[in-house]
Amino acid sequence: MDVIRKIAHNEMVEITTPVLITWYVGKARLCGYFRALNHYKKSDRYPIPRIPHALDKLETAKYITKMDCMKGFHHNGVKQNSMKLLRIFCHMAIYEYTKISFGIKNAPANFQRIMDTIFQGEILEAWMVLYIDDIILYSETWGDHLQYIEIVLSKCTPINLKISLKKCNVGQEELLALVHEVSGLSLAIDQNKVAEVLQKPVPKNIKEIKSLPGFASYCRKHIKQFSHITSSLYRLCSKDVVFEITKERIDVYERIKHELTNAPFLVLPDF
């Protein structure tokens, strides 16, 4: 998968952006600093499924499989005249992306559209959940489950959609998916994510304030009166509000941590 190409020294370079190295699951991930480009891009409002609604579909599942598209956004090409906008530089050379890069504004919505188009029939048959680059299959019988896996792989092969074997979990009664420990009976918050939250210090700026409630919002169904608890922190993020960390807000921050570590299991509805 050719994701970037090196720019020759004699090529005209009008736009470049510095390289950023982000860490994801203990590994370095390359992306460009595309904030200026994102500012001018029109927003793609294609709907991305809400995680609680997606997981509610697993209420009858006895077997669950999770697949992860390898470097999902890189499966999507870039028009020739747009590649010059995706140039990055480092001490070695200048490069340009030939595929959609991490950090591009509409990349998640665009990839969700692609996945929905590929698997639209399977979604309607109600044994698949798609969340950007995550594929979740569920069934009540093992025979059906094997058939569903075969269908998905048969659709991935012709279009060269690669699946990460390291991130696959096949035929499990319960597994980690979409920030939750999921099974056909219940939902619980992923304790690995909670452990990361517990290591966070008291916030010193707006960005750090947003990070904890932002993660917790994925788990708001597990936290009673979530909106009420987090309201004072969200007010700090409003325009024209002076940033100030008070004892009351520190207490709220610590309470969110406490609620996450003591969050109950939720039983999936049986409609």
Automatic annotation (TrEMBL):
Species annotation: Austropuccinia psidii MF-1
Stated name of the protein: Reverse transcriptase domain-containing protein
SUPFAM superfamilies with a match to the protein in the record: DNA/RNA polymerases
UniProt cross-references to PANTHER family, sorted A to Z: PROTEIN CBG26694, PROTEIN NYNRIN-LIKE
Span of domain Reverse transcriptase: 33-174
InterPro entries noted in UniProt: DNA/RNA_pol_sf, Retrovirus_Pol_polyprotein, Rev_trsase/Diguanyl_cyclase, RT_dom
